[in-house]
Input
Amino acid sequence: MEQKIDTAMDTKKKEAYQVGIAVFILLIAFTIGEYWIGSIAVAWGWALLIISVIKAFFIIRDYMHLPRLFAGDEEEI
Amino acid sequence: MSTTTTTLADYRRREGTNRLGLWLFIISDAFMFAGLFISRFYLLGTAIRPELSQILGLVITVVLLASSFFMNRAETAMRFGDRKGFLRGTLITLILGVIFLIGVVGVEWQIAPFGPADGVAASLFYAMTGFHAFHVLTGVIFLFVVYRNGRKGLYSAERHWAVEASAVYWHFVDVVWVFFYPALYLIGIPGG
Output
């Protein structure tokens, strides 16, 4: 029973780390994309702002854990 | 003399209230940054931006994003009771935060070919990066306190609100830069 709980915790921990890595890769890819757009297309300011909104969305959801704000007092997210 | 021990249920309830308070503070602080962000476009439009080092801008942005990544790792480690991982992640975040500060205030401000009073673009640049740098500095101090307390063993997997709060604050500072980076470094042509 205890071993089962440990395994479940390990899986949760692994998943949490994986989400962190995936978000970081996404953020770096978007930043390089931004840099590239900024250096070749001066008139594409709107595209850069859309990329910023997407980046902010991932940080707020996965790093700042906004859903925790809406969880119950005893709930663990 | 009586001792008060907080049950885990009480702690969770208080954590929920603290979380709400932190987000209220973050939202109100975000309005200040939003004001600066809107001012940049209102005063310069999308055609002009300050004359800045593009490579330095990209490097400091990557440094700040990396710091957020390590902060997330630190918080995750603490959530699962890995104190060593938490301390390592927090320390790396701290160092990256200091590198970012040096990059902006110690390098970018020094090599910029204008002073704070040299036109609208220059004033906006110093106001935006200055306000942001103050927040980074606050975050670095906050992280140092949390790191020090972590070394003393004050946090556990069940009780680590300070770690979560410092992480959320740090990521907020990152979100602000996510918008400031294109606004200052990428949108428009150098001038103004």
